[in-house]
Design goal:
A five-stranded mixed sheet has the order 1-8-7-3-5, with no helix packed on it. It has a three-stranded antiparallel sheet with strand order 2-6-4, with no helix packed on it. With 110 residues, the protein is mainly β.
């Protein structure tokens, strides 16, 4: 399902790694296509790992345009790329939506 983001909390996104032909080298995972207000730090995964957890987290920019966005507009689809040596591969995608019932520190709906 979609990844439900919150303006003050991170969300874990897990991906399984299917290494072809016994590849045991490092893989760098990067994410693009997130709405303004969120970021994922690149994650380097060693050859002994078969799973990666990426954290979609607030980046300090104003998330309100995304949170208040008309839901009839096009969806946000983030792209996860796996970088091996100088080659980039699309490893997966995920939809990004606001978490339900977000309130500010004072308990007011956002």
């Amino acid at each position: 399902g979609p990844v439900r983001v919150h303006p003050r909390k991170g969300v874990d996104v897990k991906f399984k790694i299917d290494r072809s032909a016994g590849y045991k080298g490092n893989i760098l995972f990067v994410v693009s296509g997130l709405p303004s207000g969120w970021v994922v730090s690149p994650e380097n995964v060693g050859g002994d790992k078969n799973e990666v957890t990426l954290i979609v987290r607030p980046d300090g920019n104003n998330p309100q345009p995304f949170l208040k966005r008309d839901t009839k507009l096009a969806r946000y689809i983030a792209v996860v790329e796996a970088v091996v040596d100088e080659f980039k591969y699309v490893a997966g995608t995920f939809e990004v939506v606001p978490q339900d019932n977000i309130v500010d520190d004072e308990g007011r709906p956002q």
